[in-house]
Specification:
By secondary structure, the protein is of the alpha+beta class. The chain has helices at residues 2-14, 22-33, 53-69; strands spanning 96-114, 120-135, 142-156. Strand 2 and strand 3 form a beta hairpin. It is extended, with a radius of gyration of 24 Å.
């Protein structure tokens, strides 16, 4: 399992972000220069005000935490290549999962439903936040990843 993570980390380390297109920069500049209506910042078109905030902030926070947790390593010269694609594996951080937590945020009984085969059932919708913490024992760096999850349970009812 550690080998899989090391291979993934090596691949991710070699990725570089694409350059931003000039058209995107111009469009962002135009939107920033637009006047703001009724004294408040426009959040977005055809969106509920504030409904998108958690879905944008969580991935950004996770990406920042991951970037901060990775140790900085100097780039190798092209002549210093290691055999068999093992480049960087010896220095790869060894993050290990140390804890996992599932927090029930809400539970809602949605009542009785009829399944496709005519069976009566009860539907319950539950919202969770799953949190996994990874630590590197060598550098004492840690990474916490939180992910919202929704679960719908349908339980057949028997009147016997």
């Amino acid at each position: 399992m550690d080998d899989d993570f090391r291979e993934l980390e090596a691949e991710l380390r070699n990725l570089r972000p694409a350059t931003v297109s000039r058209g995107l920069l111009e469009r962002i500049a135009r939107e920033l220069d637009e006047p703001v209506s009724n004294g408040s910042a426009a959040v977005g078109r055809n969106h509920d005000k504030g409904a998108w905030v958690p879905w944008v902030i969580l991935p950004i926070a996770a990406a920042i935490a991951f970037a901060v947790a990775l140790p900085r390593q100097p780039a190798q010269s092209p002549g210093a290549a290691e055999p068999d694609g093992a480049r960087g594996l010896a220095a790869a951080p060894a993050f290990k999962p140390v804890s996992a937590q599932n927090l029930l945020v809400s539970s809602r009984d949605e009542g009785y439903v009829t399944l496709a085969d005519g069976t009566r059932a009860r539907r319950i919708r539950q919202s969770y936040v799953d949190t996994i913490t990874w630590k590197n024992p060598r550098t004492k760096a840690s990474l916490t990843w939180s992910l919202p999850r929704e679960e719908v349970r349908v339980t057949p009812i028997s009147y016997e």
